[in-house]
Amino acid sequence: MNARKLLLLALLMALVAAFFALDLGRFFSLEYIRGAREEFAALYQAHPLQVIGAFFAAYVAVTALSLPGAAVMTLLAGAIFGLWVGTLVVSFASSIGATLAMLVARYVLRDSVKARFGARLADIDRGIERDGAFYLFTLRLVPVFPFFVINLLMGLTAMKARTFYWVSQLGMLAGTLVYVNAGTQLAQIRSLQGILSPGLIGSFVLLGLFPLVAKKIVEAVQRRKVYAKWADRKPKAYDRNLVVIGAGAAGLVTSYIAAVVKAKVTLVEMHKMGGDCLNYGCVPSKALIKTATLARQMRHGADYGLQPTEPRIDFAQVMERVARVIRDIEPHDSVERYTGLGVDVVQGRATIVDPWHVKIARAHGGEQVLSTRSIVIATGAAPFVPQLPGLQEVGFLTSDTLWGLRELPARLVVLGGGPIGCELAQAFARLGAQVTQVEMAPRIMIREDEEVSAYARKALEADGVAVLTGHKALRCEREGEQKFIVVEAGGHEKRIGFDQLLCAVGRVARLQGFGLEELGIPANRTVQTNEYLQTVYPNILAAGDVAGPYQFTHVGAHQAWYAAVNGLFGMFRKFKVDYSVIPWCTFIDPEVARVGLNEQEAKDKGIAYEVTRYGIDDLDRSIADSAAHGWVKVLTVPGKDRILGVTIVGAHAGELLAEYVLAMKHGLGLNKILGTIHTYPTLAEANKYAAGEWKRAHQPHGLLKWVQRFHQWRRG
Fold it and tell me: Is the peptide bond before 386 cis (omega within 30 degrees of 0)?
């Protein structure tokens, strides 16, 4: 907190202290104003404008400083000015004073609160941005919470001051009328409790329920408006409870959940069951990485007391193994399995005709139109192909088309320094390709901490990958059979020859060809949904990569539950998607796994944190496995063991991360992890030792000195 804020805080505290020290509260008692009401009334008759101005200024000061007495002053306004003038004066004075109190709280406290609770405050700010005006309006209508508390709390949010003012003005008007009207009968009032009788409180509560009812009415009107152009198409009966478009992770889990709760559900897939993860992404890449890892271990047999051997790599057989792994997993996501689970699986292309009808062009001919209560869009994402001059002429691979290769490219250029690019670059280098990785950003894996990026780069370069960061791809060229990519760095161009070019610069949601445009469903980079995964049509939802905000298979499966439940039971209750604890892992060697905040995100968001670090090179099992490298880095709330985020670099980091995901999800701190028995010798002990490092840094040194003295006394 800077000097100006401290000075302002000191001034405010001095004013409040003076109020109580001088016993100014006696002038705001019911007994005082009842006794002086006639005197005030006479003064008002003689000098109306001056009295109104002085009263207005005093009321603003009382509310701005959050002093007791606003309720009594409201009664006094009714007694002196009458109902309408009193209401007018109090309404504006209270709103201005409340706004000043809010602004002071924001100026003095928000930065420090943000530093400590930045992540939670960001969530609150998003909620305030979405429907904060309505929320504040409800709070103002019902006098359950003291108004000064509301002023201070709203100051900690990102609500605009003008919004706060006009909502407060409007929301407090009803209460102001009640109090001012009571003030006109001041002679009959014996106590403030008399005003807040059960009947009056009940009236306020009913008043507070009004906006809730109004919100439901508004939602109904909005729904009616959205569906208006399709009203004549709404069926009286439905063929299905749910139609799911896309059989990737999100679509499969959504349809499975729907079938479990005995809904009649149809799952439509135009290509392969299992989606990108099974056929082009997670499964084949991990199979390839496993083979590449084994090849690397053979070359480094000396690390294990064995004779180093250069592996004889039959790339065609390697890719056949990848295909075999896919075939072995296919039954888990097959038509037969899901049909057996109660899902109607249709192979074909689905198009949403209107909010209740889906047209299916079957893969083997024929067309079918199904009426349905709800629809879930789970069409996934596809590799992004940059608009690079000459790219089409030289040809290229993506993470979708890569798996058709049967000949190892002698020279491979990988465009992209994200997780996919890094994983495949390392794998192909270990299999014997000469790999050049081109990344426009200053470092690879830009979302991770700088030390993680540096470590990952070192690992890739150790396997022979030429990592070119800060290099922008300009164009591709062909000279006879020779193919080149031209990159630029520092104002200088460079030509790189290649046999194959792999585009791994990200993925884009599949948004075309499903009827979204015709229905007017907003879709820019992803399908626009609310926190319940609903589109502008509440019965049409989206889940998985097509909905964002994360492109992870496990997040798609996570969203699927919300999509299924909200789609089937949303008329009774809806559930907001929980993104509070999202883990992910990049499967290079060593693996990089993370959940929650890392240091660069914490700094960017202004969140205070402590760092606890444990080097895995010290772990018995990692030494025994000749994998003594990497670390566990835990971010915690300063002075507490509550976990803000964890980054693990090392062998099997993705597996080790699960303990922290569980801990963060259920509010368990490092002390709980430290108190948990971990099997020896395992890599999982790294988590316990990291917790031990935190405990060591937070020893109660003062208490331990007294314990030491106790032991000395015991020894005599």
Answer: no
Token reading at 110: 């928000």
DSSP category for residue 355: T
Nearest CA to 168 out of 98, 103, 101, 86 is that of 98
What per-residue confidence (pLDDT) applies to 204? 47
pLDDT confidence of residue 211? 52
| Coil, helix or strand at residue 709 | helix
Kindly report whether the peptide bond that precedes residue 590 is cis, defined as omega within 30 degrees of 0.
Answer: yes
At residue 441, the pLDDT reads 96
Cβ-count burial 295-311 (b if 16+ within 10 Å, e if not): bbbbeeeeeeeeeeeeb
pLDDT at residue 75 is higher than 60: yes
3-state secondary structure of 236: coil
Residue 623: phi, psi to the nearest 5? -65, -45
Single-letter residue type at 644: L
Q: Is 633 helix (H, G, I), strand (E, B) or coil?
A: strand
- Whole-Å CA distances, 432 to 170, 177, 292, 345, 395: 72, 82, 9, 42, 22
Which domains are present in the chain? 3-214 (no CATH), 240-382+509-569 (3.50.50.60), 391-507 (3.50.50.60), 590-701 (3.30.390.30)
For the chain, what's the residue count? 716
pLDDT tens across 201-229, in order?
A: 454 454 445 555 555 665 676 677 888 88
Q: How far is CA 435 from the centre of its chain?
A: 35
* CB atoms near residue 329 (< 10 Å): 17
pLDDT digits (tens, 9 = 90+) for 156-192: 777 788 888 888 888 778 777 777 776 666 544 445 4
Peptide bond between residue 198 and the one before it cis (omega within 30 degrees of 0) = no
CB 16 within 8 A of CB 62: no
CB-based contact 482:469 (threshold 8 Å): no
Residue 677 CB-half CA count within 13 A: 1
Choice between 46 and 29, residue whose per-residue pLDDT is larger:
46
pLDDT digits (tens, 9 = 90+) for 15-33: 666 555 655 555 555 555 6
Residues contacting residue 58 through CB under 8 Å, at least 6 positions apart: 73
- For position 290, what pLDDT does the model report? 97
* C-alpha dist (Å) from residue 373 to 240, 355, 356: 7, 8, 6
CA 6 to chain centre: 34
Residues 312-321 pLDDT 10s? 999 999 999 9
Task: Give the C-alpha separation, 242 to 370, whole Å.
Answer: 10
> Cα-flanking dihedrals φ and ψ of residue 317, to 5°?
-70, -35
Distance CA 10, CA 224 (A): 55
Percent of the chain at pLDDT above 90?
62
Q: Please report where in the chains the tokens 């001059």 appear, as a residue.
A: 389
Question: Using CA atoms, how far apart are residues 499 and 503, in angstroms rounded to an integer?
Answer: 13
- R_g of the chain, CA atoms, integer Å: 33
First-to-last alpha carbon distance for the chain, in angstroms, is 50
* pTM of the full structure: 0.76
User: Residues 417, 395: contact at Cβ < 8 Å?
Assistant: no
